[in-house]
Design brief:
By secondary structure, the chain is α+β, with helices and mostly antiparallel strands. It has 2 domains: 101 residues, Winged helix-like DNA-binding domain superfamily/Winged helix DNA-binding domain (Arc Repressor Mutant, subunit A); 89 residues. Helices cover 47% and strands 9% of the residues. The strands form 2 sheets. It has a 4-stranded antiparallel sheet. It has a two-stranded antiparallel sheet with strand order 1-6. The longest helix has 17 residues. About 10% of the residues have low confidence.
Length: 244
């Protein structure tokens, strides 16, 4: 049987949740929920809540082998900052830094609006196991999430997260740097004010003569971004300037 077929338990999440809080956040939140509700997991009881616990290394080994520990740590921190996840360290000590987590379900209820959340049976999807953080989700799925993220009322932070995921998959690059974040914010601003779709830019960029990622750092992409949205007869071809 082909190794490309899933024989292990897949990670699941709802695309509409990813639109609301971010792609990585939706995956982690769903996995925390899974372990909290799993009857085989005794967890940890405190303050009337059931908590799940792992170090970042353990989360990586047992749940998210396709992410780096830094990515996992940033995602948990983002969920805590949003108030969707609460953490404690009851055994905090020099040699035990294990964090315990629970979901703040009341905060999550704001996303229960039927206009925001699709039925799980209709929209449930799976992630793929890849070594590169930037290529975590299939491109067609990221395209769909990106389109949903541009709907009115979606928070800017979620839109930018989805743009970063789209760029990461498209260019097969790690987009967690400050430079990529600035580019994503610029893209979002241009879309909101002018309707400039990042996918049109990507199509234009890949159509340039002898396109090579080494000649197109993020700074240069941002500089020539507007070139993709002018009439073809008026477009400036940067390849001529750089002799490409």
């Amino acid at each position: 049987m082909s190794k490309l077929l899933i024989e292990e338990s897949p990670l699941t999440f709802q695309p509409s949740l990813a639109v609301a809080i971010g792609l990585n956040e939706a995956i982690v939140l769903q996995q925390i929920h899974y372990w909290i509700k799993n009857t085989k997991n005794k967890g940890y009881e405190q303050d009337g809540y059931k908590w799940v616990y792992n170090t970042y290394a353990e989360w990586k080994e047992t749940n998210f082998p396709f992410w780096s520990e830094n990515t996992i740590q940033r995602t948990f921190a983002s969920l805590e900052e949003k108030g969707l996840v609460v953490s404690i360290q009851p055994m905090k000590g020099k040699y035990d830094r294990t964090k315990y987590y629970r979901i703040e379900y009341t905060k999550l209820e704001v996303f229960d609006d039927p206009k925001m959340v699709c039925s799980l049976s209709e929209s449930e999807t799976t992630t793929e196991n890849n070594d590169d953080d930037s290529n975590l989700i299939p491109k067609d799925l990221v395209d769909g999430i990106l389109e949903l993220s541009q709907a009115p009322g979606i928070k800017r932070e979620a839109r930018i997260n989805d743009i970063l995921n789209y760029l990461g998959v498209t260019f097969r690059r790690n987009t967690s740097t400050r430079e990529w974040l600035g580019f994503a914010k610029y893209i979002d601003s241009e879309f909101q004010s002018k309707g400039w779709d990042v996918k049109q830019f990507v199509s234009w960029l890949f159509g340039q003569k002898d396109y090579n990622a080494n000649y197109w750092p993020v700074k240069k992409m941002m500089e020539f971004y507007p070139s993709a949205f002018v009439p073809k007869s008026e477009r400036y071809n940067p390849n001529e300037e750089f002799g490409l």
